Amino acid sequence: QVQLVESGGGLVQAGGSLRLSCAASGRTFSNYRMGWFRRAPGKEREFVAAISRSDNTGYTDSVKGRFTISRDNAKNTVYLQMNSLKPEDTAVYYCAAGSGISGYDYWGQGTQVTVSS
Length: 117
Prior knowledge:
The chain is an all-beta fold. It is built from no helices and eleven strands. It is globular.
């Protein structure tokens, strides 16, 4: 139904910035809630940020003030702007889409973000 492809990951020094992109297939991108999750080595998958169909946003406490989620429905793309990156942000970042009232139905393959000390 929906295919998600993340890009923009890479290696960055602490204090630097990176912008992740998630390109979605289909004509109904605007109907989906979009989220970013991450999994660090040895840790559980963690919620990072989400944006609703009406552009309401939410963030986990550890990234508030540093990360910004946004969407461009015309481009079928959701972004995660990451500033003031810390080594503890190192993880594989996943894009997800949800069509229902809660939860996520579709997931991307992930993109690696590595923040050096």
